[in-house]
Backbone:
């Protein structure tokens, strides 16, 4: 019998099994079930439809208000009020109200993301938590209601694809560029219902916020999870904040993989995902001069303090180009406070930008920077589907590419700035 991948080991432990095999269906008990304002409303109604009066384990349910923050309408506000009343009536212990930040940022900062954890979230980018060596995956509203009502959920064990990143990234490139490179290589259908395991010097050299970017993008190639083996960087990130004892899981030496992707990080350059597919990837250098009406920095992909600090350092003492709007939305209250303390929010505002309330903002097309017909946006989010942010077109790029683009009002290679 061959050894087990990280995904197999974590799912086996949460199914109270010695081992599980790819393709097998198992019933698992999650450590945490995540919902946000946008998903809690339908989930709580679905819970009632399934015949559940109570959440089985309110101490394991995490609710974060992040998508409709601030509310854009009285209808949304009514829904938020209803959700908050339900949360309190159910005794949900972990509730983070509007302004706390994006759910995935909050989970990481508040110690829910730990090695070996199983996190089920009613948000597709729950893969983010694989950066900590957890198995994080997105589930639908009915599955989420079932998980909340019973405390368990039925899952199929995925096959695992090994991603090896050799060497380290060159200057002026980031984890976002590495993630875009992999999206271009694998395509949006290249890892459907697989788990990705990230290995190699190039991954080990990434800071935790960069690993979160990489794991966040796993779902954009169809993956169920994107896991980084825990190391000293992981241990330092969860020290003093972990809400469960870390269970450090690494793959067995003889683990079986469905395939392997190898990347020489030295060859990665600043990249873009062009309209309107995440895998329509090209180099920034080949698109220099493309006019941009809006630059957006934020979302669960690139909204940590370090992401925005890297952006701010490039726009310091510069002015946002005339005719280009700059919107920056930190991923959490903690990130915003750090930016304030460092004087970096002032840097952004003095350059001509706008700094918004921690949350998802315009990423999913609800509020706070919706594009008009013919508008072009360069954003640090993870999706550029048609209509995602209104009627315009979206290019995806790194915070560094966003900074260079904001200064000149057209797509600009960050290697040419400073």
Residues:
């Amino acid at each position: 019998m061959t050894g087990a991948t990280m995904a197999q080991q974590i799912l086996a432990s949460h199914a109270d099994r010695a081992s599980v095999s790819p393709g097998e269906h198992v019933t698992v008990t999650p450590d945490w079930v995540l919902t946000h304002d946008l998903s809690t409303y339908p989930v709580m109604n679905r819970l009632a439809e399934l015949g559940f009066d109570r959440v089985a384990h309110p101490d394991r349910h995490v609710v974060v208000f992040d998508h409709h923050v601030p509310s854009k309408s009285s209808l949304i506000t009514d829904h938020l009020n209803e959700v908050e009343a339900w949360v309190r009536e159910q005794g949900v212990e972990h509730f983070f109200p509007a302004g706390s930040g994006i759910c995935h940022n909050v989970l990481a900062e508040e110690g829910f993301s730990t090695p070996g954890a199983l996190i089920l979230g009613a948000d597709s980018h729950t893969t983010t938590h694989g950066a900590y060596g957890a198995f994080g995956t997105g589930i639908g509203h009915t599955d989420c209601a079932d998980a909340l009502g019973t405390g368990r959920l039925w899952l199929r064990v995925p096959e695992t694809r090994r991603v090896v990143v050799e060497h380290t990234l060159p200057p002026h490139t980031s984890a976002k560029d590495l993630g875009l490179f992999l999206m271009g290589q694998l395509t949006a259908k290249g890892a459907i219902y697989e788990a990705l395991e990230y290995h190699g010097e190039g991954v080990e050299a990434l800071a935790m916020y960069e690993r979160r970017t990489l794991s966040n993008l796993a779902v954009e190639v169809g993956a169920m999870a994107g896991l980084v083996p825990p190391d000293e960087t992981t241990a330092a990130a969860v020290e003093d904040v972990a809400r469960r004892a870390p269970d450090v899981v690494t793959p067995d030496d003889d683990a079986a993989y469905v395939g392997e992707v190898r990347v020489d990080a030295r060859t990665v350059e600043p990249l873009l995902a062009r309209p309107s597919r995440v895998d329509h990837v090209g180099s920034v250098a080949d698109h220099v001069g493309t006019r941009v009406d809006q630059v957006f920095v934020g979302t669960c992909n690139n909204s940590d303090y370090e992401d925005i600090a890297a952006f701010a350092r490039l726009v310091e003492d510069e002015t946002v180009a005339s005719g280009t709007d700059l919107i920056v939305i930190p991923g959490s209250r903690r990130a915003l406070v750090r930016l304030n303390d460092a004087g970096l929010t002032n840097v952004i505002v003095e350059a001509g930008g706008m700094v918004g309330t921690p949350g998802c903002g315009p990423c999913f097309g609800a509020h706070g920077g919706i594009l008009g017909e013919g508008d072009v946006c360069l954003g640090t989010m993870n999706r550029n589907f048609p209509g995602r942010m209104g009627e315009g077109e979206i290019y995806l790029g790194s915070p560094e590419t966003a900074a260079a683009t904001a200064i000149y009002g057209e797509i600009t290679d960050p290697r040419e700035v400073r």
In short: The radius of gyration is 21 Å.
